Amino acid sequence: MPAYFTPELFRFLARLKRNNHRDWFQAHKDEYETYARQPALRFIEDFGGPLFKITPHLIADARPTRGSLFRIYRDTRFAADKRPYKTNIAMRFPHRGKDVHSPGFYLHLEPAGCFAACGLWHPAPPTLLKVRTAIVERCDEWRKVRKLVNWDDANRLSRPPRGFPGDHEFVEDLKLRDLGSAIELTDAQVCGPKFMATFAAACKKMSPLAAFLSGALGLKF
């Protein structure tokens, strides 16, 4: 299998980080198309098959806009950081009709910072309540998948959430406000001919957690 991405992707992103302004990006937009956007769209299109083997309920949407590929443009309307461009390439593979916060798979490409992930990042309170309730009501199932949770737990409550027992077996898990799993990837893996298989294997490994979170939200997996 030919490689989807080349070292030129990471060189472009590193240069964009040093020159994060519109004039530079417009002058190098053809590089973004050649080394980042078009290879990412091809990868998304081809990942549809491996993804279906893991679950038929997540989608790989290769549309140029409003699909699996995140925009390179940052939303700076309410941000103190006014740099206009993201310095990574990101893709999401969510439940059909659900937004980025659904417990699907995620791919992040950044120089020396690539990873595959799944989970719930900053979920809304009603969503988090459903997950916490599932942890309490489905302890045996949670016990099997919780070892996959490895996101930084700095965003954790200092006390048990209201309405949940402070002496519960999984009280520390109930305090989490983000729940997810991530598997690091090297730049060499991303640029290698086996990257599709590598990413699919990472998603397969994380799929029990994605399945639990999906079930907690009433979604099929």
**Total domain modules:** 1
The portion of residues forming beta strands comes to: 5-15%
- The structure class reads alpha+beta
| Mean pLDDT across every amino acid position | 95
Helicity level: 40-55%
CATH architecture: 2-Layer Sandwich
Distance between the termini: 29 Å
* Number of E-state strands: 4
Which of globular, elongated, flat, extended, rod-shaped describes the shape? Answer: globular
Q: Provide the spatial order of strands within the biggest beta sheet.
A: 1-2-3-4
Order of helices and strands: HHHEEEHHHEHH
Main beta sheet = 4 strands, antiparallel
CATH topology annotation: BirA Bifunctional Protein, domain 2
CATH class: Alpha Beta
Number of helices: 8
Description:
This protein has helices spanning 7-18, 22-27, 29-54, 125-137, 139-145, 171-174, 187-190, 195-216; strands at residues 89-93, 105-109, 114-120, 179-185. A hairpin with a 4-residue loop joins β2 and β3 (114-120). α4 (125-137) crosses α8. The protein has eight helices and four strands; from the N terminus they run αααβββαααβαα. The model has no long low-confidence stretch (mean pLDDT 95). With 221 residues, the chain is α+β, with helices and mostly antiparallel strands. The protein has one domain: 2-Layer Sandwich (BirA Bifunctional Protein, domain 2).
